[in-house]
Amino acid sequence: MTNPYLDARFQPLSGIFIMYDLRTLRDNLDATKEQLGRRGNDIPWDKLRTLIEQRRTLTSQTEQLRHELKMGSDKVAKLKREKQSADACMAAMKAVGERIKTIEDELRNVEEALTDLNLRIPNLPHSSVPTGKDAGDNQEARRWGSPPVLTTPAKSHWELGEDLGILDFDRAAKISGARFAVLTGTGARLERALINYMLDLHTTQHGYREVLPPFLVNRSSMTATGQLPKFEEDLFRLRDEDYFLIPTAEVPVTNLHRDEILTESALPIRYTAYTPCFRREAGSYGKDTRGLIRLHQFNKVELVAFTMPERSYEELERLTSHAEAILQGLGLHYRVVTLCTGDLGFSAAKTYDIEVWLPSQNHYREISSCSNFEAFQARRASIRYKGTVEKNVAKTEFVHTLNGSGLAVGRTLVAVLENYQQPDGSILIPEVLRHYMGGVERIRKE
RNA sequence: GGAGAGGUGGCCGAGUGGCCGAAGGCAGCAGUUUGCUAAACUGCCGUAGGGGGAAACUUCUACCGAGGGUUCAAAUCCCUCCCUCUCCGCCA
Fold it and tell me: Which of A235, A294, A366, A383 would you call most buried, defined as having the most Cβ atoms within 10 angstroms of its Cβ?
């Protein structure tokens, strides 16, 4: 069964609300507000409360009137069959019908407002998430490896790449604009090698099934995973069709199972997907303007998992370790950070960021973000599972969804260039990539 | 892009205004018969929301691709949209 609430043109009229369950929300409105803290600041809670109550009243009114109408219509049918006059009854039912129409118009407005509000409430943080205001309050969970020892001052990846002739930002600006890059020669091959290395590791060692999804998706898909309605300005959208360019493979891959009921035995489902990702980067003017760090288009290998609710937190640890395995294989120093409540994304209940060491910045930079969304996306997307308990079919429940970058390919290329730079400006290729590079061991000036 | 055909329960498929939440079949579940299996027979067998009950359950409402309209009454009539299929065109 499809979830009509995701259709932009749908005018809701009684029935279920998939995002936040309305009854639960009503009973826990204050607690929800409390738990969301700063993240719920822009939600008009009093209006929400009023709308929920109005919906309840109007719904029961229409139900009563519909019952009346149904009885009346049956009576008309009976009278006509018995060749008696039904005029009086028909007139009375016409009046009832008009009352229903009036009340339903009102109900429609209430539900529309309610649905829109509901879709803009962020997910609740998990209890293990540290409380905090912003990125400054994130907690470092662990570090792996150590920064490389460079005998000369670290050059930035754009200096290295342009000197080597494998990165071209000027021509990218000409053919597209700011925040685009052209990779050429060994640079292009290195990007491709990284993609293949990541996909191969995840599919052969970590148990993920490879997916190559569409890069354009519809509005329903974007709403299901939480990009819409709140973050439309971050997305590229086609002018003549209601399609969006995906900002991450999370969107098409999570939506693979939208409006489906999975069997318990099929869980967990694990997918990995390579896709380009497209982001408007509205509001990031002046940040990371040089280099490959922040582009309108970049490549990413994504990990996506669907699990039973009681398994999702162990899956989050697993999934994060799979992303880490890529960096370990490449021999890149990194740390894992637990995002605090204030830094958590809209849809996530808990997130680990993996940050790789960049010598030129003397800093860790985000290269992966691994999140458990619990049932937040599953509700919006209506992804459920049905189990069996001693031959009886158990109640269908929402699955938990997770995803993480495994990894952002462009930023991985940055990390390889900067961490493996040699005094002469050449780049040593990490062992694991060499067979994807046709045996090339070092990138020299082209 | 042009022309046409469709979308009904887990599946197949009937249903052109009321007694239709929807015939019939398949699959599934429970039982009867049987030495076992098979077959036959009987019953059950959609989803969601609200009310009642400790509970098995019961009652109301909605749902026949989605939305809107006509009507006392819509799976059925009208409009819009989405999707699938066939043929032509174009293309990789």
Answer: A383
